[in-house]
Design a protein that fits this description.
By secondary structure, the protein is of the alpha/beta class. It contains twelve helices and eleven strands.
Length: about 375
């Protein structure tokens, strides 16, 4: 991303939909561009109220389709046990922020293909609505390349949304890692070779090649006078190239941990707080004794349910601490704070909880807490593997 704290728009279940500041710049450009387009369709000035309203609706519809695309990825990821903390919109589209890599080639393929399938469904639905509303000739007249003076504003908007989503579908299926097509290529290579690291290097190599191709294409467009489109394509190529390079570098790191499991380095005797303990006892017996900023919390069956932070416990009025329970102030886990003890060690490298709180809770198949793995332990494992 381009930096700055993201802005949360809304939540879908537990998934936060947020925007990078760069998204507002793109939204502004889309509205200006579309206002002129619908002004041409309707024979009015782009600043008139109707073209402007259609431009706003089209822009909202386009970014809404991007959110649906990313929710497709997120839904399949969650079904495969991969946590999703947020979906972020930014200058070049959207990204579902997963807490770890896919555990199998099939999961990788399913997650990667889910977004394009959602986009394909959006295109089909939009075209079906247009055919029902205007017939096949009206459909041909309403797409951006076939507009006529008789095209209505609403049909033009539906046609543009179908057209732009079709372009998004084709673009995303290009085998340029880390785009969806590149991830599909990685899944297939992983399935064929059984080696995720080599599959990632192969897909990242394709990504870098396409990145250079986009940069070269962008420079040609600039030379031919298409300055805005050329700069945009070159920037996309730069981002793809950088992401592919980063994936290659990360693969070099994760390759050192091949064969290691979370259980190999975790602390098998973690200190935890029962959820039925009073806040007063938690402060006296844990926070004041150990001086740690947080503790894992377990229920009566020893299942990990979340974290309790010192500042949350301190917020409870002193007069209520004896009767308030830890379960009242715990930050419930949505899958972000935990990892299976038998999971490959490299799966925790992308875990945001490891960066946020410095540790991840290891659980067994039934969700019972059986260890804690810290960022320090992961770093030590990387150093030992490199030596």
């Amino acid at each position: 991303m381009l930096g700055g704290k993201p802005i949360t728009l809304f939540h879908v279940g537990r998934i936060r939909i947020e925007v990078d500041w760069s998204w507002f710049f793109v939204l502004f450009l889309f509205i200006v561009w579309q206002s002129q387009y619908y002004g041409d369709v309707l024979g009015e000035a782009g600043s008139a109220s109707t073209p402007f309203l259609l431009a706003v609706l089209a822009s909202v519809g386009f970014f809404g389709s991007i959110v649906l695309h990313e929710l497709g990825h997120a839904w399949v990821a969650l079904r495969n046990g991969i946590g999703i903390s947020s979906i972020r919109l930014w200058i070049f589209g959207g990204m579902a922020r997963m807490d770890r890599e896919s555990p199998t080639p099939k999961a990788e393929f399913d997650v990667a293909i889910a977004g394009p399938l959602v986009t394909l469904a959006i295109v089909v639905v939009l075209l079906a609505v247009e055919v029902l509303a205007a017939g096949s000739q009206g459909l041909a007249d309403s797409i951006p390349l076939g507009k006529t003076p008789d095209t209505s504003g609403v049909l033009a908007m539906l046609g543009w949304l179908a057209f732009i989503n079709f372009l998004v579908l084709i673009f995303n299926l290009l085998p340029a890692f880390p785009m969806d097509g590149g991830r599909i290529v990685r899944a297939i290579a992983w399935w064929r070779t059984g080696d995720r690291s080599s599959a990632t290097r192969f897909a990242a190599g394709l990504g870098r090649a396409f990145g250079y191709l986009f940069i070269g294409g962008g420079l040609l467009l600039i030379f031919w006078g298409e300055v805005f489109g050329g700069i945009w394509l070159a920037l996309i190529g730069t981002v793809i190239n950088g992401s592919a390079r980063a994936a290659t570098a990360q693969t070099a790191i994760t390759g050192r941990l091949e064969g290691m499991r979370v259980a190999d380095i975790m602390d098998r005797d973690p200190v935890y707080i029962p959820d039925e303990l009073s806040v007063e006892r938690a402060l006296d017996e844990y926070f004041l004794r150990y001086r740690w900023p947080w503790f894992p919390v377990v229920d009566a069956a020893h299942r990990f349910i979340g974290l309790v932070a010192r500042d949350k416990a301190d917020e409870v009025p002193e007069t209520s601490r004896a009767t308030s329970l830890v379960s009242d102030v715990v930050e419930l886990d949505d899958g972000t704070f935990q990892v299976r003890a038998d999971a490959p060690l490299d799966t925790v490298l992308a875990n945001r909880a490891l960066r946020r709180v410095g540790a991840v809770m290891a659980v067994d198949a039934d969700g019972r807490l059986c260890g804690v793995i810290t960022a320090e332990q992961v770093g030590r494992a990387l150093r030992d593997a490199a030596s």
